[in-house]
Write a structure and sequence with these properties.
The chain is an alpha/beta fold. About 35% of the residues lie in helices and about 20% in strands. Strands 1-3-2-4-5-8-9 form a seven-stranded mixed beta sheet, with helices on both faces.
């Protein structure tokens, strides 16, 4: 599938992939900073943002979508950065196409299978979908009991757009994403990746606990782990300066 994308800056290519329920819009501020050093490609994965919807959704397809984009853009080697679901996409891509990667950055995502944990977000999305969405303030009012965290709620609401006058709709394919949640939460297949890799985790996030690190190092033996304090799963949004400095230090050294 052809992925919608935007290119900012010049230099070595750095491709950024968002997480579940996200889009390339979540990374615009970071892209501007990174574009001082790299040609940054902000991508919408399938069923998200401005990229087409599809009934099929798994990491094999997401990795192949990414490969098609890299091929179409004529890049021989790229830096890859993926957050959450995007982190698992770039890890699977690295297993399939390691020779096309210069350096790899995985943001707050491990290799294991995760238990279901998006129930409240999905309940809020359903509550919104069952109510005529004719204003953003009304949409936020409906969503708040399900998603009380302001940052997470605003993140989700970036997916709302005016499909016609007085009517909001989702840019993400909620039906397929919910149906394929088991695939989204699935473990990365076994397979060693020798690409130089940085794992960034939030100190307040439980996605990469200490006991998981040895298993990750078995599959990514050339890996480094950085923990950013006072940050949860959306580490790049919660501590943007420290996050960007950590990324640049890794990519530029």
């Amino acid at each position: 599938m052809k992925l919608q994308h935007r290119i900012i800056g010049e230099g070595k290519p750095l491709i950024i992939l968002h997480g579940l329920f996200g889009s390339s819009d979540n990374w615009q501020t970071h892209a501007k900073r990174f574009s001082d050093y790299f040609q940054v490609i902000l991508v919408d994965q399938r069923n998200h943002g401005h990229t087409d919807w599809s009934d099929d959704f798994n990491y094999e397809l997401l990795a192949e979508d990414l490969h098609e984009l890299i091929t179409d853009l004529g890049f021989e080697k790229v830096h890859l950065l993926g957050h959450s679901m995007g982190g698992k996409t770039v890890m699977r891509y690295a297993q399939l196409y390691p020779d096309t990667i210069e350096k790899l950055i995985v943001v707050d995502m491990g290799i294991k299978k995760y238990p279901p944990h998006h129930q409240q977000i999905l309940a809020g999305i359903h509550a919104l979908s069952q109510t005529p969405m004719d204003s953003r303030s009304k949409a936020e009012e409906i969503l708040t009991p399900f998603v009380p965290e302001t940052g997470t709620r605003q993140f989700l609401m970036k997916n709302l757009y005016w499909i016609e006058k007085g009517k909001l709709a989702w840019r993400m394919n909620v039906t397929v994403l919910e149906r394929e949640m088991e695939n989204i939460l699935a473990a990365l297949p076994e397979g060693e990746v020798l690409v130089q890799t940085l794992f960034i985790r939030g100190a307040l996030s439980g996605y990469i606990p200490e006991e998981d690190i040895s298993a990750i190092e078995d599959q990514f033996p050339d890996s480094t782990f950085v923990t950013i304090q006072h940050a949860g799963h959306w580490v790049h949004a919660e501590q943007p300066e420290e996050f960007m400095n950590t990324v640049l230090e890794f990519l530029l050294r």
